């Protein structure tokens, strides 16, 4: 073998590193995010909208409120899950109040980290609910319990046996004082237990209002369990 064969080609170990993913901030428009100060104190949860170049607006979710009597920009961090990128996104920027009390302007927005940690946006819960099998004539609603909850799906405990691929209508009160939400999901996996079966399900056609409520629940639980409220 000649010198070219020995030294002229890079080995796999010596191959040039992959180019980093380009950071198009528009990819994160519509993302629900927890907004914290630089010390990690939670300020509010909001939906990031109207993203252009390095600025956009944060539309507060639920009844969240935050002290607005400030003229100086406040440095913040945003943590959310991007459905477009299917990744957890961490951004930084500065916020200022707008004329609308439910909106904050965000400027100097940059992407600081992008990770595959969807599990961080899943929380253990214990919520009483009811399920109705879809496609079973005459099927009635049956009590069940939500074991964990995420942006994309739910784990359900039930004494009744179902099969992978079946669809279920889940009725649950996500927010006290608000009428129950009815969500369609599909079973992806089944785990047999001594008392109950557990079903890992993905949401199908989740509406925006219920998605916002689920995000709010997850962030609220994370703040309580980390002692940040």
Jot down its keywords:
229 residues, mainly beta, six-stranded antiparallel β-barrel, 12 strands, 10% helix, elongated
Task: Provide a concise account of the structure shown.
With 229 residues, the protein is mainly beta.
Commentary on this structure:
The chain contains 2 helices and 12 strands. The protein is mainly beta. A 6-stranded antiparallel β-barrel has the order 1-2-3-6-5-4. A hairpin with a 5-residue loop joins β11 (about 180-190) and β12 (about 195-205).
Rounded average pLDDT: 82
Spans of at least 5 consecutive residues whose pLDDT stays below 50 are 1-13
Strand order within the widest sheet?
Answer: 1-2-3-6-5-4
The radius of gyration over CA amounts to: 22 Å
Largest sheet descriptor: 6 strands, antiparallel, barrel
N-end to C-end Cα span: 68 Å
Instruction: Tell me the number of strands.
Output: 12
Which word captures the global form? Answer: elongated
Return the structural class: mainly beta
């Amino acid at each position: 073998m000649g010198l070219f064969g020995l030294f002229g080609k890079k080995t796999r170990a010596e191959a040039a590193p992959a180019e980093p993913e380009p950071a198009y901030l528009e990819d994160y428009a519509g993302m629900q995010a927890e907004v914290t100060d630089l010390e990690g104190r939670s300020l509010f949860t909001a939906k990031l909208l109207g993203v252009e170049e390095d600025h956009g607006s944060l539309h507060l979710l639920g009844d969240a409120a935050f002290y607005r009597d400030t003229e100086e920009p406040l440095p913040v961090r945003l943590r959310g899950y991007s459905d477009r990128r299917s990744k957890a996104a961490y951004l930084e920027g500065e916020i200022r109040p707008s004329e609308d009390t439910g909106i904050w302007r965000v400027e100097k927005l940059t992407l600081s980290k992008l990770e595959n940690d969807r599990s961080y946006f899943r929380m253990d819960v214990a919520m009483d609910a009811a399920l109705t099998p879809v496609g079973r004539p005459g099927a009635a609603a049956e009590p069940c319990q939500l074991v964990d909850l995420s942006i994309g799906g739910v784990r359900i405990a039930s004494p009744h046996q179902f099969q992978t691929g079946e669809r279920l209508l889940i009725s649950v009160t996500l927010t006290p004082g608000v009428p129950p939400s009815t969500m369609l999901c599909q079973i992806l996996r089944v785990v047999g237990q001594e008392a109950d079966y557990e079903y890992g399900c993905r949401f199908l056609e989740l509406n925006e209002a219920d998605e916002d409520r689920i995000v709010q629940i997850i962030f609220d639980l994370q703040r309580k369990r980390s002692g940040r409220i």
